[in-house]
Fold this protein.
Amino acid sequence: MSGFLCLKKILSILEFIASSRGGGAAHVLELAGRLARSRFKLTVAMSSDEFGVTENEITATGAEFQPLDLTKGSPLGQLLHLAALIRSRRFDLVHFHGARAAFWGRLACTLVRPRPAVVYSIHGFSYPFYHGYKQKIGYLFERLVGPITDLVVCVSDNEKKEVLRSRLFPSSRVVVIKNGISWERIHTPAGLKRNAGCRAGLGLNDDQRLLVMGCRLDRPRDFDVCLKAMARLVTGFPDTRLVIAGEGPERLRIQNLIKLHRLEHAVTLVGFRRDMPDLLAAADVFMLTSWGWEGLPLAVMEAMAAGLPVVATATGGLPELVIDGETGFLVPMGDDSSLAEKLGLLLSDAELRQRLGQAGRQRVITMFSADRMAREMSDRYLELMPGCASEYLSWEEAVCPICGRPSDSLWRVVKGFSIMRCRDCHLAFVSPRPSEAALARFYSQGYFTSDSENNVGYQNYGAMEPELVKTFQRRLREIQGFIRGGRLLDVGCGYGYFLQAAQPLFSECWGLDVAPEACEQVRRRGFPAFCGTLDEAPFGNEQFDLVAMSDLFEHIYRPQDFLDQVKRVLKLDGLLFLTTPNMAGVLAKVSGRRWVSFKLPEHVVYYTPLSISKILSLAGFEVLSITRAGQYCRLDFILKRIAQIGGLEGVASGLIERLKKYLGVMIYADSGSMNVLARRK
């Protein structure tokens, strides 16, 4: 594997944010607690502000804390101090959070040789909301230090759109990694019986309704609209209380607004709270009003994780977090009338509050976990390491997934990858192969609309819906004689086409995928979906009657461990149904090195009926049937595949041109895979 380097050292990373207050600092704390210490050595630099993330919280994660306050001393002195820190520690990568830290940090990097890789997380793109000279100076500063930026991380799709519209950075250097939280630490009102102690401390009785707004008291939050809406609301709901939790420069102005609207009896400023989970568990509704930029607010995620419906301004990344009418309500910017109306609707309907709150909690669990966020960030860090000759970054030797022995029996070399074969287990596997972490990012970013030259992902998965749904309907007929209804989990669910085909047969259908894009599509189809891996999912033991996997098992690096997780969530006598390429099939033998299932390095293991039976038996499954798997395809797809196998691309192009009007016809053809049905012993 010449030309590929192995990355084995522990990488030294600096995370720098100017302030320890607010969501950006909380995000850094989540990263510090989740990035693998076996791979990264972490230093966090920030100011030691009151009412923020503390040094003890940072060091408790195993990271080193470095106090650095840009507001103390001369700017030049702090610039030189930061440059000296980066130079002396020889960081492999520096990650700047927020515009202030990123400007000074990138200037400091110009004084360091060799320069580390530079990542800039925006956390709310504010420049488009400035006017006049202030906006021009902001853009000028960004253009000045932009060339020192290797990667720009946006926390929402909307933020990326605004960044690209500004033309400050090329699109190739801008990615989206959505925020995530440790939802496990958030209480729900039901779990704490509405937290009577906290409510009593606020002077509330059981019949009063509590609204909470938790945020830094600073731009871009719109406290004018918040308090105008509250003034409207108390005329119809006089017992309602609003608690605003947080500190910031707007505190005095907010106090004056409360007096102006005569809301002293209804609105309380409680300051910075380290017990926000307790306060949320005491509340009925959470709201957040903004007049400008918003990234992807952690406070809203925490409220949703607490099972609260959210009413928020439809700006920035908030519409990607709060689904209007499903997890809460979105209102136009500056519209206090609509805000009061939606709050009143929730306060008057307990069932609606509960339904929207439960949906919001499930959305956070499935889409916005800290584990997912840290995993995606880790993969991006690895891509940026200097000296890596391949985008796959690190390579590892593989052993037979069944018997654990390394194999010196080379089966084939395809596209530069060596595929080994275990003579005892009849199993083929790629070795050496990219590390699992290096490949994981393909599944979480653009996998279903991939333009990768490395044969990873799909060019347009969404366009394949008709033939895939029809294919899955036919495959499901194979299992109808073995199962009648129940609960289904589709692992590696993609856009939910298998769930769509299975819905008439099962009382409940769940999806699971590591790609946020896929889980979002599944939710839009009306199915619940968890974003992450099976061992991370909050599924109880023996929960499902059927676990399905379509074209997934060949991606799994540790199939035995994976099957243990499948077995855990399956009921006794539950069924496993999977489809995977059959390397002993006719199509594989005829195609040779041109076999369509050689999607390398994405597919890392190849099975025969004998080897799949052996590995399932070892994992505690009884194989019920193994059949040839076909697939519905359009005629143009079949012609291209035939041409690919035979090296006749020119002939295929001519046929496609002549048969234009028939190209949309769907034909059922051998896919070169096998359907496997097994029962948990």
In short: Residues 183-367 form a domain with the Rossmann fold fold (CATH 3.40.50.2000). The mean pLDDT is 86. The radius of gyration is 27 Å.
